[in-house]
Amino acid sequence: MIKIDINKKLHGAKGEMDLNVNLEINEGDFLALAGKSGSGKTTLLRILAGLESSSGVIHIGDEVWQDEKFSLAPQKRKIGFVFQDYALFPNMTVEENLLFVQNDKALAKQLLEVTELSELAKRRPSTLSGGQKQRVSLCRALMNRPKLLLMDEPLSALDPAMRTKLQNEILTLHKEFGTTTIMVSHDPSEIYRLSSRVVVLEQGRVVDDGLPKEVLLKTNGSQKFSFEGELLELIKVDVMFVAIVAIGQQLVEVVVSPMEAKGLKVGEKVSISTKAFAPTIV
Amino acid sequence: MLETLKTLDLTPFILSFKLAGLTTLILFIISLPLAWYLSQSRSKAKPFLEAITALPIVLPPSVLGFYILILFAKVDLAFSFTGLVIASCFYSLPFMVQPLQGGFEGLNKNMLEASYLSGKSRLTTLLKVALPNIKPALLTALIITFAHTVGEFGVVLMIGGSIPDETKVASIAIYEMVEIMDYGTAHIYSAIMVLISFVVLLSVYVFNHTQKKIGGFH
């Protein structure tokens, strides 16, 4: 059981903010940390890693990492950390990056095999693609058999296809090593596929905490489908209006009445929802 | 002309390079922890340390020479080669510290943190991760310190005097040749200095250029 109860004053873009998080995490859990940027997600990870100070307690099983008087050095916490920008050591080959953490050749070989990197073992990071770099970074984070694996938006710099591939590898490695994992992510599909629990932070506080299904599948009342999007344009067609809305990467047209159109403004965030209908999935 | 070349006394050059080599070595050992500390520190003492380190750049060499001379009078180091090495270390300090500090500051902070999280100490991180990834800055620091020490004049004159085979380095020798109006030797000495300095600087820039091309650092 991991117990976190920490407090830290942050000076964010919106002035002072209190990061106040109280969480209990079961061993082996895969927890996704979501929330707007500036809500304190990265700071929470850095506090867990010992890279930033805070007041409060952090207990990992029967080990104390931090209490009111004491804070264990990051070197001694046995943490795996995956950074968004990979943060590999450019002066070392892929294999050397892994062995630098722990001179365990068998483990390095196993990790490189799982992530299909064996053939690149002797290459330098500067010659790898973004997806390959992040896989090396993931392997490196697991080299000291960490008690806690922290990932700060590990896949956000990658294209969608590479993202899906890496999600599968993360899942495989998580199953194989059973490492308790906390991952910062903005991507609902990623959170849904990987995590067993979602914690949403807002202004430094936990505002939602539960199963991905409960937290992510937000439907009000009897609505079955509901999307958030941005209104790009309102076009008058005869007596009706057509609204062009961007939902994620996709554009859709929605017919609205002149009355409804009056209440809409181009550039605004809008919500599109529908009640009973039978959608087709292909 | 050929006769002059044959009888040319090269001792001043040997002295200059010995002085510069020793100074560079000592300064590298002193500056490495100092530059690392300055690059990583967020302490309020940092600007003071930085200002003190940079002083030799702006102070006239005579001011530096004067203080060192007063200091040396008490320990009997003035007008000796050892005294010259110590004085040069003061004089060339910023030329070693500043490029190293700049190199360390340009490193990816996450990369250094990744090393700490791998259980590595600050010293291991400095030697195995930080230093190998600032090669161009390291080379610049070493070469500029060496070249700057070879080129110094004011401090050497005040601290070393001009004792042949002991403290009469190349720059002093040239000054003396001009004073006694031996322009022939002064020409040759000066030409050698220009040539060596140019080759050294050229090699630094060529190296840094190729490093950037292969993306060895950012």
Keywords:
heterodimer, A: 282 residues, alpha/beta, Rossmann fold, OB fold (Dihydrolipoamide Acetyltransferase, E2P), six-stranded mixed sheet, globular, B: 218 residues, mainly alpha, MetI-like fold, 11 helices, 0% strand
Share in β-strands of chain B: under 5%
Strand content of chain A: 25-35%
Mean pLDDT of chain B: 90
Biggest sheet features of chain A: 6 strands, mixed
Main CATH class of chain B: Mainly Alpha
Tally of individual domains of chain A: 2
**End-to-end C-alpha gap of chain A:** 42 Å
Give the helix tally of chain A: 8
Can you give the helix content of chain B as a percent range?
over 70%
CATH topology of the largest domain in chain A: Rossmann fold
Order of helices and strands of chain A: EEEHEEEHHHEHEHEEHEEEHE
- Biggest sheet record of chain B: none
Radius of gyration of chain B, in Å, reads 20 Å
Structural class of chain B: mainly alpha
> What strand order characterises the main sheet of chain A?
6-7-8-3-9-10
- The amount of helix of chain A comes to 25-40%
Stretches with pLDDT under 50, minimum 5 residues of chain A: none
